[in-house]
Write a structure and sequence with these properties.
The protein has 13 helices and no strands. The protein is mainly alpha-helical. α3 crosses α4. The longest helix is centred in the first third of the chain and has 35 residues. It is globular, with a radius of gyration of 20 Å. The N and C termini lie far apart (about 60 Å).
Length: about 300
């Protein structure tokens, strides 16, 4: 088995240093319009990140076990561990991330864990650390096709970590738009600010990990507009800094919708599989409903 280091743990000092630099930069007069850091919010994000790392020791054992199970018993081919296979894996992993991320916004079961990352009303490098405590135990299913076609599980785990590391630096308002060629290909702070916006025009857009090309290919790309400043957070914010509540409130809300009230079995199932905002009585509004209402209001 290839022996790759746990690069996330090695990157922790870099995370701390980068946040300190960002804190210094965003306090300058040029960035007075940004929200910057709020102590309680930043500590909540850091607590979520530490919890994710701690639980990761357990979840990674489960993930690796499942990846190896597929690789050892079900794989179609054997892809060697070499430079060109890492090039292929880069694109395969990034495509997997796009669909995982997109479905996490379109299916409430996955949104229940992913909502954690969107729960901050601030946007800075500490927000990148606001990670789920539950999602890593089941979101890996979007990567199971990789060992099936022959990628070694150790390679997959390494590439997933590289993708996560890349996404750290894009959680900032301190970097404006980058050169056009870079913005055209890669996920950037500007693209990802849109993803964290609760403005109707920005909802469920820019699901990219490293490459923004997937959003452009599958119709979910939205550029950051100078006329529409990003409002961070959720359509209905959690309004808490308690890490336990941040981690599990949406799970509680989902289970309440599933198991209470007079509903058909199909309606109860739909509360798990339909997008956030769906209601069995037709009173709910999905992101595309809110976007259409906003566009109509802008045209009037």
């Amino acid at each position: 088995m290839p022996d790759f280091p746990n690069i996330i743990l090695f990157a922790i000092p870099f995370f701390i240093l980068a946040m300190l630099v960002e804190l210094f930069v965003t306090t300058r007069s040029k960035f007075k319009e940004t929200k910057g850091y709020e102590v309680k919010d930043a500590f909540a994000s850091i607590a979520m990140g530490l919890g994710n790392v701690f639980l990761g020791f357990l979840s990674k054992a489960i993930v690796l076990g499942c990846l190896f199970l597929v690789y050892e018993h079900l794989r179609f081919f054997t892809i060697p561990v070499t430079w060109w296979s890492f090039v292929l894996l880069f694109f395969a992993d990034d495509l997997s991330y796009y669909w995982f991320h997109r479905i996490s916004h379109e299916c409430r079961l996955f949104w229940a864990s992913h909502v954690v990352h969107h729960s901050s009303q601030h946007y800075n490098l500490s927000t990148a650390l606001r990670q789920t405590w539950s999602g890593s135990f089941y979101s890996f299913i979007f990567w199971l096709w990789l060992p099936l076609v022959g990628f070694h599980p150790a390679m997959i785990m390494l590439q997933m970590s590289i993708s996560l590391l890349y996404q750290f630096w894009i959680h900032t308002e301190a970097i404006d738009k980058l050169p056009k060629w870079f913005e055209a290909i890669f996920n950037t702070p500007s693209h990802h600010r849109v993803h964290h916006g609760s403005n109707p025009i920005y909802l469920d857009r820019n699901h990219a990990g490293i490459l923004i090309i997937w959003d452009k290919l599958f119709g979910t790309f939205q550029p950051e507009l100078e006329t529409e400043k990003v409002k961070y957070g959720l359509v209905k914010n959690l309004n808490t800094f308690n890490p336990i509540k941040i981690a599990f409130l949406e799970w509680a809300y989902m289970f309440k919708d599933v198991f209470t009230g007079k509903k058909t079995l199909k309606d109860r199932w739909n509360y798990v599989t339909k997008p956030p905002g769906w209601k069995h009585d037709g009173t709910g509004k999905l992101s595309h409903d809110l976007r259409e209402e906003w566009l109509k209001s802008m045209n009037n």
